[in-house]
Specification:
Blueprint lengths: L1 H32 L15 E3 L1 H12 L14 E10 L3 E12 L9 H19 L8 E8 L9 H11 L6 E5 L11 E6 L10 E4 L1 E3 L3 H44 L5 E2 L7 H6 L12 H6 E2 L2 H22 L3 H40 L8 H27 L8
Parallel strand pairs: 1-3, 1-8, 4-5
Antiparallel strand pairs: 2-3, 2-4, 5-6, 6-7, 9-10
Helix pairs in contact: 1-3, 2-5, 5-9, 5-10, 8-9, 9-10
């Protein structure tokens, strides 16, 4: 887990450098759309809250993992997440999604820096979708949610402070609380809360707002019960597969791939060149800065990759000389010969890469149906593997493409 933690710490620095720019753009977008400005005849504190089935299911599904009738009450844990939604016609809040972030203790949750990074990434992802025309132009982080297993619906002092961070800049922001012990035949166990007067800070009282739904409660309840049964029957396997991806595929298989057939650039910075990190080949999206002064000063190319690149350059030089010396008769056959040699050199790396990829895909067949119920740290393991795996593959394909010697005319 140390390398995963290290990557997050590094990403925090990278993302923090971008957050100001993104937030400025996002603030400008908010001002332009005027989506949080409150009309004089509207009281945002009393604005109704509508919860979509997907958001309810995702919230309850994640909460169920840590608090349910099959777990001893003393072992119940609170969970935390954020809400994605929209404000419709200035008089209703629609919650489209509820993304899990973290699990805490019996009462209370403490977020790590990686969770704030995750929130920032989600926010940036929504903004990117907006400007690229792929998402709902009015959708954004509309609030937060957490659980009070067995405690009921209220804002503690800590909850009030947390909610001020949401409702301060957005009067419509809402906090949802789920308590599975309060579920009844006609109540789904969720209440929406807002602060009555955020300007008074931590002294502000809260108000409970009834949550409204898009489907009949009986339909929602029946659907979630089926989903909870699936989670109950599969959660141990899901956690086991995530642990396998981290401990076997990341900490061993990818390390072996990079150690024996290194492709990913290795930073020269002494601060981050521990043996394990070198084997992982951690980089900052500069895998394809070829022959640059910056690359040579800041990164070390693994020996395996360096040898292949040198071989490609050597063969390319020879082919160019053949063109210059008008040896076109032998050029085509020589080109194929060199290409075959490079492909042969790359073959063992492709073989090991494909073996690891297949192993990962088999694990994901178990995890994927339940991906919505994973939290930040669990998603990080998958995201980390995908990124390293994809970066490695891109370089393999790039070298294979260079070995076609397309720049040499026959």
């Amino acid at each position: 887990m140390d390398s995963i933690k290290y990557l997050w710490e590094k990403r925090i620095k990278i993302i923090q450098n971008n957050i100001i720019t993104i937030n400025l753009k996002r603030t400008k977008s908010n001002m332009t759309s005027d989506r949080t400005k409150v009309p004089e005849n509207i009281d945002p504190v009393n604005t109704p809250v509508y919860l979509k089935d997907k958001a309810y299911q995702r919230m309850v599904g994640y909460a169920y993992r840590y608090s349910n009738e099959n777990i001893e009450k003393k072992n119940w844990k609170e969970v935390y997440g954020i809400l994605i939604g929209t404000i419709k016609e200035k008089n209703k809040v629609i919650i489209d999604d509820a993304i899990p972030l973290s699990v805490g203790g019996r009462s209370g949750i403490e977020l790590d820096p990686i969770h704030y990074v995750d929130i920032s990434q989600i926010d940036m992802s929504i903004y990117k979708s907006e400007i690229e025309g792929e998402g709902d132009l009015s959708e954004y982080i509309i609030g937060w949610w957490h659980t009070h297993p067995g405690y009921g619906f209220f804002f503690s002092k800590v909850d009030t402070i947390t909610h001020l961070g949401y409702q301060g800049p957005n009067p419509y922001a809402v906090g949802l609380i789920f308590d599975h012990t309060k579920k009844t035949s006609d109540f789904l166990g969720i209440a929406a809360l807002r602060l009555k007067n955020p300007k008074t800070g931590i002294f502000s009282k809260y108000k409970i707002i009834e949550v409204q739904y898009f489907s009949e409660k009986a339909v929602i309840k029946k659907k979630i019960e089926k989903e909870l049964e699936k989670i109950r029957n599969n959660i141990d396997n899901i956690v086991r597969e995530i642990d396998y991806i981290e401990e076997v595929l990341i900490e061993n298989a990818l390390v072996k791939l990079q150690k024996e057939y290194g492709m990913l650039l290795i930073p020269k910075n002494n601060e981050i060149t521990t043996e394990k990190i070198e084997q992982h080949g951690i980089e900052e999206d500069r895998q394809f800065i070829w022959d640059s002064k910056f690359l040579k000063k800041s990164y070390r190319i693994p020996k395996y990759r360096k040898n292949i690149e040198s071989l490609i350059n050597k063969y390319e030089f020879r082919l160019k000389n053949m063109v210059t010396e008008n040896q076109s008769n032998n050029l085509k056959s020589q080109k194929k010969k060199y290409q075959k040699k490079i492909v042969s050199q790359l073959k063992p790396s492709y073989k090991l890469y494909n073996k690891i990829k297949k192993d990962y895909e088999e694990r994901m067949e178990v995890i994927s149906p339940f991906f919505n119920y994973l939290d930040t740290k669990e998603r990080l393991v998958i995201e980390y593997f995908q990124k390293k795996n994809f970066d490695y593959f891109k370089i393999l394909e790039h070298l294979k493409e260079k070995a076609n010697f397309d720049s040499i005319d026959i």
